[in-house]
Amino acid sequence: MEIDFRNLPKGYVYCFNSECTRHEQCLRWIVSNQYVTDDLSCQAVRPHVARLKACPFYSKPEVQRMAWGFTKLFAEVKAKDGPVLREQMRNYLGGMGTYSRYKLGRRLLTPQQQKHIISLFRKKGYTEGLEFDNYVMVYDLDH
């Protein structure tokens, strides 16, 4: 599975310890071996941690369904409700620029964000066709 590095948290701790017995099942190791960057340094797990009984940095790879694009959401929305819903979404997502990044797929909506946005439409009485334009399965990098 590919990793969406746009969602990599600032200060992410990498692991390059292939001597660790769990390295192939650790998200930090998976990320470290797929991430190509020009950076000369990063925060990383020290080599001696591989000798510990249990690594305190171990991160189980978990997958989540992310989304982007709003065309389908607004397909059946009444003209009077569109501007209100867009304004509520912009407020929730952090402004026009951020809204546009989610609309264009430059940022991906988490399952929690998707749920909140769908709830805005439900509050306005919309119950059908509540889906985003695109979905992708990605590793959850925030745990």
Class by SSE composition:
alpha+beta
Strand count, sense and barrel status of the largest sheet are: 2 strands, antiparallel
% residues in beta strands: 5-15%
Read across the widest sheet, the strand sequence of neighbours is 1-2
What is the tally of helical segments?
5
Helix and strand pattern: HEHHHHE
What is the total domain count?
2
The helix fraction, in percent, is: 25-40%
Query: Segments where pLDDT lies below 50 for 5+ residues?
Result: none
Number of separate strands:
2
What does this structure look like?
The protein is of the alpha+beta class and 143 residues long. The protein has 2 domains: 5-51, no CATH class; 63-139, no CATH class. It has helices at residues 27-34, 71-74, 82-93, 96-104, 111-123, and strands at 63-68, 134-139. The protein has a two-stranded antiparallel ribbon. Helix 3 (82-93) packs antiparallel against helix 5. It is elongated. The protein starts with 26 loop residues before the first helix and ends with a strand. The mean pLDDT is 92.
Task: Throw out a few tags for this protein.
143 residues; alpha+beta; 2 domains; two-stranded antiparallel ribbon
Short description:
This protein has helices at about 25-35, 70-75, 80-95, 95-105, 110-125; strands at about 65-70, 135-140.
Map the helices and strands:
Layout: H1 27-34, E1 63-68, H2 71-74, H3 82-93, H4 96-104, H5 111-123, E2 134-139
Antiparallel strand pairs: 1-2
